[in-house]
Write a structure and sequence with these properties.
Blueprint lengths: L29 E2 L5 E2 L36 H11 L1 H4 L2 H15 L1 H13 E2 L2 E2 L1 H50 L10 H8 L1 H34 L1 H48 L1 H7 L2 H26 L2 H27 L3 H43 L20 E9 L6 E10 L4 E6 L5 H8 L7 E6 L2 E2 L5 H7 E4 L10 H6 L7 H10 L3 H5 L18 H15 L3 E5 L7 H15 L3 E5 L3 H6 L2 E6 L2 E6 L1 H7 L2 H20 L1
Parallel strand pairs: 7-12, 7-13, 10-11, 11-12
Antiparallel strand pairs: 1-2, 3-4, 5-6, 5-8, 8-9, 13-14
Helix pairs in contact: 1-12, 3-5, 3-7, 4-5, 4-12, 5-7, 6-8, 7-8, 7-12, 8-10, 8-11, 8-12, 11-12, 16-18, 18-19, 21-22
């Protein structure tokens, strides 16, 4: 297979085992809130089945998503919470409401003028043209003024809502980046993206139409009811009393709509998760010929989303007919009451006609409310999901201002370290203690799931330990200033994540102020300048999404250069697990040696050749530190490390034999 740079690549090297693809859920399996499959019986000791070192199965995200959502908070409570975190919506709201009320008052001027024309302009069979013209002029001014007031109200609300939603997206995005590693696992990404994008978008659509309708029409209804009461309290009472049953019907439907649209938003998050995984794993899907399996999984998510939308649509379908029926009943009741009470109540013909106009004016917003109620519930459901995301507590709180790390390579002291991905969950690290001298080269070794990557993330404070402490350069990691922590202690992950830009721009993420010459110097100092020069455009070569135009090893070369320009005093490297060609592996080894020079370095060693060169080897087994020492001493001891080393030698020999 040829890559994005026109070079040959080994198809098999990039393909993980087929078992890595999440299976299609069967009827006998439990479905967790994120659309993942988990066995209904817990593993012994409370560990979630399928948990790995990198992405443990964590079903503690009920706050973020809920498979069978319950309307825990009503629309008013969500509105109150939303206004509290979005000051843009509150700013100037008094003026906006006042303008809406004035606009609503302007709408009732026309029925009043109609009454005046009938009662004053038409007297005794003659027409008083002067009065009619004056009233018509007043009506024209009122119509223009009402249009201006309504337009201004809509404009102010539109601007305020878009500014608020921009701020809400920023808050949600910033919150996502501050969440713990458990909430940022691959299984959650589709849901998190949904919260920041589509859920907020439902609010944008609502404010552009539904929100304006609620405010403007609410003002019209208030002005209309007040005017009707001035004409005749009894007729006004008839109109309001006939509409009351409609409000009861709407309240009943609202309860079901809230639950229905909560489920729709949940299904959207599930669908985004499945689609995201399928797109990112397209090479695996094609490489193993499992399109049918992944299609079934995707189609099942689409079908669940379809079913949820149909359920919500069926409930919403009752709204418009209900509004039409009650509107007709209200007009009929007012006409009958007006004709009956008119002579006795002293109502003129003009007043009865005006009252019918007012009733229609009152019912227009009522009918429109029935149409926008389902849109409102969609927005409420989306708003609640975003608020639930913001309610997820931040586990890693940066100190203010914090203590800077010393510039020299630090020693690291870990004491009694324990960690679990969720409170009360299985511990992935238990009572880990060790000391790393300054400038030491350390290898972290262990079988898959032993806790290596989790320990590395704790060392870089992507999460805080459940128990114990990490002291770097004499300072507790929780007290280190965040800027100093990120500049002095850098982690290079095994996937070598790259952004969809150039090689040079990806390196510059290590230090934004770095110029092109500094970037080229980084490749030279790491001994990989010949490789970067071989690229079609050198450091200006685009790497594609997630660096897909580069091989796994080449992506890590770029990641090492990024770490070099950051100039950390402590380096943590997670070796790439995928096989790389000998030339790239040689480049990686030399680059790592150059980068580690004069620094404290910790390497998660998936190839034990790295451990052979380390000054200290730490051996993890099921979350516990079981051995530590030099390579030769650990091999001679015949323990866990010796077994891992023997297995690695066997695999290496078998691979070499197959290649020969």
């Amino acid at each position: 297979m040829r890559d994005g740079l026109g070079r040959e690549q080994d198809d098999g090297a990039a393909l993980p085992a087929a078992a890595e693809l999440p299976p299609v859920r069967s009827a006998g399996e439990a479905h967790d809130p994120l659309g993942r499959t988990a066995a209904t019986d817990p593993a012994p000791g409370g560990a979630a089945v399928g948990a790995t070192d990198h992405h443990p199965v964590d079903v503690a995200d009920a706050v973020l998503l809920d498979d069978e959502p319950v309307a825990a908070s009503g629309a008013i409570a969500v509105l109150r919470r939303g206004l509290a975190i979005s000051p843009e919506l509150r700013r100037g709201i008094g003026i906006t409401i006042a303008l809406a009320l004035l606009g609503g008052a302007g709408r009732v001027v026309v029925p009043i003028l109609v009454q005046q024309v009938l009662d004053r302009g038409l007297r005794g069979g003659s027409v008083d043209l002067g009065t009619v013209y004056r009233l018509a002029a007043i009506g024209g001014v009122a119509i223009v003024a009402t249009a201006f007031l309504t337009r201004t109200t809509r404009k102010r609300l539109a601007v305020a809502s878009e500014e608020a939603l921009c701020g809400l997206r920023v808050q949600a995005f910033s919150h996502v980046h501050r969440l713990s590693i458990a909430h940022q696992s691959d299984e959650h990404r589709g849901a998190l993206v949904s919260r920041v994008t589509s859920d907020v978008e439902t609010l944008s659509i609502f404010f552009q139409w539904g929100g304006v309708a609620w405010l403007v029409n609410g003002a019209v209804m208030i002005a209309t009811v007040v005017t009707m009461a001035v004409y005749d309290v009894r007729l006004a009472a008839v109109a309001v009393l006939v509409v009351l049953p409609l409000s009861l019907v709407l309240k009943l439907l609202q309860k079901h709509l809230i639950a229905a649209y909560d489920l729709v938003r949940t299904r959207v998050g599930e669908l985004l998760t499945v689609v995201s995984e399928t797109v990112q794993g397209a090479a695996v899907v094609r490489g193993y010929g499992i399109e049918d399996r992944t299609n079934a999984r995707t189609f099942a998510a689409i079908d669940r989303w379809r079913s949820a939308n149909i359920r919500a649509g069926v409930i919403a379908a009752f709204l418009f007919p209900a509004g039409e029926i009650f509107a007709s009943l209200t007009v009929a009741a007012v006409i009958v009451a007006g004709v009956t009470l008119g002579p006795d109540a002293g109502l003129t013909a003009g007043q009865v006609v005006a009252f019918i106009f007012l009733v229609n004016l009152f019912l227009e917003p009522v009918a429109e409310f029935t149409e926008i109620l389902d849109q409102t519930q969609t927005a409420v459901a989306g708003w609640r999901k975003v608020l639930d995301l913001l309610d997820i507590p931040i586990e890693v709180v940066d100190p203010d201002p914090g203590t800077p790390l010393p510039p020299a390579a630090p020693d690291i002291v870990v004491a009694g370290l324990s960690y679990a991905y969720r409170p009360g969950g299985a511990r992935v690290l238990s009572d880990v203690s060790f000391t790393i001298p300054a400038r030491a080269r350390v290898a972290l070794v262990g079988a898959t799931g032993s806790g290596k990557t989790t320990l590395a993330k704790l060392l870089t404070r992507l999460a805080d330990p459940l128990e114990g402490s990490i002291v770097v350069g004499g300072i507790d990691l929780r007290e280190v200033a965040p800027g100093s922590l990120r500049s002095r202690l850098v982690m290079v992950p095994q996937d070598g994540f790259l952004f969809d830009t150039t090689v040079g721009a990806n390196v510059r993420f290590g230090r934004p102020a770095a110029g092109d010459e500094e970037i080229r110097l980084a490749f030279t100092e790491l001994g990989i300048d010949s490789w970067v020069d071989s690229l079609p455009a050198g450091i200006d070569t685009r790497v594609g999404q997630r660096g897909e135009h580069l091989s796994v090893g080449e992506r890590q070369l770029v990641a090492l250069a990024r770490a070099y320009v950051a100039n950390p005093s402590c380096l943590i490297l997670d070796e790439a697990t995928s096989s790389v060609d000998p030339a790239t592996e040689t480049r990686l080894t030399r680059a790592l040696q150059s980068l580690s020079e004069g620094r404290t370095s910790i390497t998660i060693a998936h190839r034990l050749a790295t451990a052979e060169q380390a000054e200290l080897v730490l051996v993890l087994d099921h979350g516990r530190l079981v051995e530590q020492g030099r390579h030769r001493d650990l091999v001679a001891a015949g323990g866990v490390y010796a077994g891992l080393h023997a297995s690695w030698l066997d695999v290496t020999a078998a691979t070499a034999g197959a290649g020969g």
